[in-house]
Design a protein that fits this description.
alpha+beta, 154 residues, 4-stranded antiparallel β-sheet, Alpha-Beta Plaits
């Protein structure tokens, strides 16, 4: 049997429990066709790069699959017919990834750093500028022509 990774995006307005139900439905389709789901990861509700069927967000799920190609074709057919699935991509791989995926590793490292707002920019909110009042026009450096004219009259 071949090894596959499948990432699917479900609509934003369904609950995460419904997404889990969808994953269970797909895994039963695979097991009925002599396949198996080695691992599935729920990546959460994430922003889409562009609107898909009027949705700005979607529930992302990764499936690591060990199944024959007929099982994959049946799973993809069911996903095409399901209105809750916005997009999917199934890729054949040489070996399945052990442990958490890169997306989950990045999420855990971000959580360890303190999440959102944990980072402080140098200089505060204004992008590193200090809060001194602007210089007056008298203390600004004079152009070279004006400086030489003052030197001649003195």
């Amino acid at each position: 049997m071949a090894l596959y990774e499948c990432v699917l995006i479900a609509r934003q307005d369904i609950a995460s429990t419904q997404v889990e139900g969808l994953v269970e439905q797909l895994s039963t389709i695979l097991t009925d066709n002599q396949g198996s789901v080695a691992k599935h990861e729920y990546w959460g509700l994430r922003n889409l790069a562009y609107r898909i069927k009027k949705n700005r967000k979607g529930h992302y799920v990764l499936l690591n699959i060990d199944a024959p190609s007929d099982a994959i074709h049946e799973m993809e057919r069911v996903m095409r017919l399901n209105d809750d699935v916005l997009r999917y991509l199934t890729t054949r791989v040489d070996e399945l990834e052990e442990g958490p995926s890169v997306v989950m590793q990045n999420r855990h490292s971000r959580d360890e750093r303190g999440g959102r707002g944990g980072r402080r920019h140098e200089g505060g909110r204004d992008g590193g500028r200090d809060n001194r009042p602007p210089r007056s026009h008298d203390s600004a450096p004079k152009p070279a022509a004006a400086a030489s004219a003052e030197g001649e009259s003195a």
